[in-house]
Amino acid sequence: MLFDTGPAYSPGADARERVLLPLLRLLGVHSLDLLMLSHRDGDHVGGAATLMQALPVAELRSSLESGHPLRQAGPPAARCEAGQGWTWDGVRFDVLHPTPAHYVAGLKSNDLSCVLRITSASGRRALPAGDLEAGQERLLVQREPDLRADVLLVPHHGSKTSSSAEFLAAVRPVAGLVQAGYRSRFGHPAPPVLARYQAAGIATVASPACGAWRWGSAEPLADARCERALSRRYWSDRVAPAVDPEPAGPPAPGWPEAGEP
């Protein structure tokens, strides 16, 4: 299963080409049982069309309107609705938002974000929340008695419109993962939002500083890893400590003598 597909950067370049497909191939994944797209915004669905062309996808589930091109051209499609749930290999998936009434009300796309609770066999939980905003966060808290999760995919990239105090108190995550662009023109994540997480004792990890964040539910959260720390680029390597230069000797074979071209 894949949740969201990232943005399209320009014609012919998107997150499918640069990130998702290379990663899936590295992991040995050659088809998807389910692609879930939280909502219609381009930074969440920009890679979906080319991804579905590149590998088989058995089902598309989303909050996209029925006439959306991705629903028309892709695999069998259905709406995500609160109350849907299934179990794969001992892992439980529960859709918590939106409700059928939200579709009827014609909420804006952010507030129609599919919110998915994922519970491992060991009881660890992750909560991808799309771009859900504060008003619907509070209503979800009232509607859903158990929002607790170990990891929260920070709603709306850390925007000021989301991560309400009531929502954070209900979810009580150990870690909040912020997916945001480097030097985001929207100011994500917003400093007041980060302060709210800090005040609640929730550690935050931001993708510009971390790169890909890796964690398996069988591991303690303390063992989660940042790809930028695991695979540093050569230009990010630390400078070797200074050492006393060795006495100058004859030039190495093949190197020109001083003054030679």
What does this structure look like?
- The chain has helices at 15-26, 42-45, 48-54, 69-73, 100-105, 134-143, 165-171, 191-199, 207-210, 227-230; strands at residues 2-3, 8-10, 13-14, 35-37, 60-62, 77-79, 85-88, 91-97, 115-119, 125-128, 151-153, 175-178, 203-206, 213-214, 225-226.
- The chain is an alpha/beta fold and 261 residues long.
- The strands form 4 sheets. It has a 7-stranded mixed β-sheet. Strands 1-4-5-6 form a 4-stranded parallel β-sheet, with no helix packed on it. Strands 2-3 form a two-stranded antiparallel ribbon.
- A hairpin with a 5-residue loop joins strand 9 and strand 10.
- The longest helix has 12 residues, at 15-26.
Helix coverage percent of residues? 25-40%
Q: What separation lies between the terminal Cα atoms?
A: 59 Å
Order of strands in the sheet with the most strands? 7-8-9-10-11-12-13
Q: Any idea what the shape is? A: globular
Helix-strand string: EEEHEHHEHEEEHEEHEHEHEHEEH
Question: Counting H and I runs of at least 4 residues, what is the number of helices?
Answer: 10
Q: What is the beta-strand fraction?
A: 15-25%
Strand tally is 15
Low-confidence stretches: 243-261
